[in-house]
Every structure is written in C-alpha cells, then in structure tokens.
Amino acid sequence: GAGVSQSPRYKVAKRGQDVALRCDPISGHVSLFWYQQALGQGPEFLTYFQNEAQLDKSGLPSDRFFAERPEGSVSTLKIQRTQQEDSAVYLCASSLVPSGGSGELFFGEGSRLTVL
Amino acid sequence: RKEVEQDPGPFNVPEGATVAFNCTYSNSASQSFFWYRQDCRKEPKLLMSVYSSGNEDGRFTAQLNRASQYISLLIRDSKLSDSATYLCVVLPPVSGYSTLTFGKGTMLLVSP
Which end of chain B is more exposed for a tag (fewer CB within 10 A), N or C? Predict the structure, then answer.
C-alpha cells in the first residue's frame, strides 16, 4: 500500500487479556518504530527495528510488552495480561533511513486500545 | 528535566493572528530538530525541519537557538485549518544509532 497500515484500528480488551497489534510499513522502509500515545500526551517511544533487528526496546514499559519484525517488514506488538494503564493509541511509524535520521517518519493511523 | 519540553497550551487565537511556540531540549549535543503537526485523532505528520540558519515555508517559520537550547515555530496569518497540536521533535546525539524524541505537543485553536 501507499502508506503505513495498522490493524486493528480499535481494540477493546478485558483486563488480563492478551492483544496483538499489527503494523505493515511502507515497502522498502528500513526503520520501524512503535510509539505509545496516551490522551493529551505526545508519542512516547517504545521500540525500534532496523530491518528485522530490534535495536532498541528501552521504551517498552514492562516485560508484558513484546515486539517482533521477523522478516524485516510487518511488525507485531504484543501486550500480555493487559492492564487499564495500557489503554492508549499505539502508533507505528516507518522511515526509509536508519534511526529515522532524516526526521521524516511516516505514521500509521494507530491502534486505539481500551482496556476495561 | 525532560528531554523535550513544550507548553501544552491551548493557544487560542483569532483568524489572521500571528502565534509562536517554543520548545526546549535538554541535550546540548542534539543534532536535528523538527516540527510535526497532529490533527485531532489523527497521526502525526512532518511539518518542517528546523535548520541552524532558520527556515521558512509559506506562513510558517522555524528557528533554532543552540545557545539557549530551544526551537521555535512562528505561524503568520493563522487559518482555521491550522488548528492542531504541534509536536517538537529532537534527534539526540548519535551513539551507534538514535531515535527521534517527541515533546508532548502544543495545542493551537484558531477561531473565526
């Protein structure tokens, strides 16, 4: 597709459920980022992939969060045993160059997670 | 001190007004700076890069002050469509690799 695609757009989970969020980046983009954006806040960095390598996962808030990009294209962010504080919009972004060094990240529309 | 700080606003201005936002960053060795725009319930999009010499794109002017560690965005002749949240973004110093850091954003509301 022409842009970054994320699914599902909306997810409601009961506390304790596991969820999986998918990101399909722009074809050929080396870098892939996951951000978490709570209401009224800016995007907070979660993790970064360069191709299939996860080079930075320092932003993942707990070991309940796990991300992968096994073939260097599609990525999945998995949250185990969801908690209410996990409720947020999860944004995926891709960039043609490593580390987003050009400054231009292309974002998907996000997956809005609500944990009840 | 947070890496990137912005006044959350909202800034309420009438159409046609000039408005300016500042953003401060903590790491003096930061290498690149950008402004992103985010409409309500939409994804962030790159508005413009910020160059050391300052740069202008139509009604928008971005400036960098390395000595005081802040960047600014000036919007002239505000339009209703300028209503959005403006995110300040900083690329930290290179250390093998580095990733963009976003501020919390400044909300702008332009009224008729």
Answer: C
Chain B residue numbers touching A50 (CB-CB < 8 A)? 97
Quick one: pLDDT at residue A104? 86
Helix, strand, coil in percent for chain B, rounding step 5: 5, 50, 45
Question: Residue B97: its pLDDT value, please?
Answer: 58
Statement: residue B96 has pLDDT above 60: no
| C-alpha R_g of chain B | 14
Size of interface A-B (CB pairs under 8 A): 58
H/E run at residue B84: strand B84-91
B contacts of A42 (beta carbons < 8 Å):
6, 87, 102-105
Q: Distance (Å, rounded) from C-alpha B4 to C-alpha B25?
A: 4
Task: Tell me how far CA of residue A40 lies from CA of A14, A109, B85, B87, in angstroms.
Answer: 23, 16, 10, 12
Q: Chain A contacts of B45, Cβ < 8 Å? A: 107
Mean pLDDT, residues A11-35: 96
What pLDDT is recorded for position B95? 58
DSSP, residue by residue, chain A: --S-EEE-SEEEE-TT--EEEEEE--TT--EEEEEEE-TTS--EEEEEEETTEEEE-TT--STTEEEE-TTSS-EEEEE-S--GGG-EEEEEEEESSGGGTTS--EE---EEEEE-
pLDDT the model gives residue B100: 85
User: CB distance from B62 to chain A under 8 Å?
Assistant: no
